[in-house]
Amino acid sequence: MEALENLPPIARLSDRVVRVLGQNPGKFTLQGTNTYIVGSRNPYTLIDTGEGKEEYIPFLASALKEHAPPSDPQQPDISDIIISHRHGDHIGGLPSVLALLRQSLPPGSFEPNRGGSALHDLVDGQTLEIGSSTSLRVLHTPGHTVDSICLHFPEDNAVFTADTVLGQGTAVFEDLSTYISSLQSLAAYKDKEPGKRDYALLYPGHGPVVKEGLKTISTYIQHRLERESQIVQVLQSPAPDNAEVWTPWTIVSKIYAAYPESLWLPASHGVILHLRKLEKDGKVRFLGGEGKDGRWQLSTS
């Protein structure tokens, strides 16, 4: 397994971006959830809020004070919060973040959540203006979750990719078909506005900055297509133990034969997602059964 890079709790990544770790390291969160303070002056935009660890709030407060200090005392530190997707390690910290922001409001300024709805759905292709010269373009990239978004940030020649593309390792997904489509859309994305740049950097939801963004996305796509090809090759061979058809478990036992059996169960979940994609593509048929013991065969039509 690739060793995780040691990331500081707070890091200025550019003139307009400060990363604050959510203080929730783990197997799936790597060094923790990356949250981002974006903008050249207050009010800033915050991308994601961590999962609600109380250790996160002092770091966010310190980042706002020392790394993104207010230039206009009559404006709040943060005016907008963007949530990349519904997973708890990205949205769980919202209540504590709002509580912090209320404490720092200058006298006579507006109160977050006062009047009308504070929640707004973002639309694919929508441009969000933040500050006087900074903008974010919303890119709907379902697959990791149905509501996953990325954010193109032309001022930094970058895309905030949340959990669609990570800084290290590969991402998990709920629907492989839509996930690969989203990756292909990201790889082909071009900014349509005159004078705006496309992107090279990725600011991920977990892990360090990715400097070769397009290369990494292409690697993600290639990895998934290679795994799909492996599964098809297995299905083309006779099933083991005199069985008539393959199951995700027997497919995993073939593909992951060199790996510890303790890894086979999570691997079977990924195989199932690949099989569902192949079913949508008309390449395999589902014959019944549940989970890792479901029965699958190549389509003859």
TrEMBL record:
GO BP terms, alphabetized: secondary metabolite biosynthetic process
Protein name (Swiss-Prot/TrEMBL): Metallo-hydrolase/oxidoreductase
InterPro entries for this protein: LACTB2-like_MBL-fold, LACTB2_WH, Metallo-B-lactamas, RibonucZ/Hydroxyglut_hydro, Sec-metab_biosynth-thioest, WH-like_DNA-bd_sf
Recorded family membership: Belongs to the metallo-beta-lactamase superfamily. Glyoxalase II family.
Sorted UniProt keywords: Hydrolase, Metal-binding, Zinc
Keyword Iron tagged: no
GO MF annotation terms: hydrolase activity; metal ion binding
The Metallo-beta-lactamase domain, residue ranges: 32-206
Top-level lineage group: Eukaryota
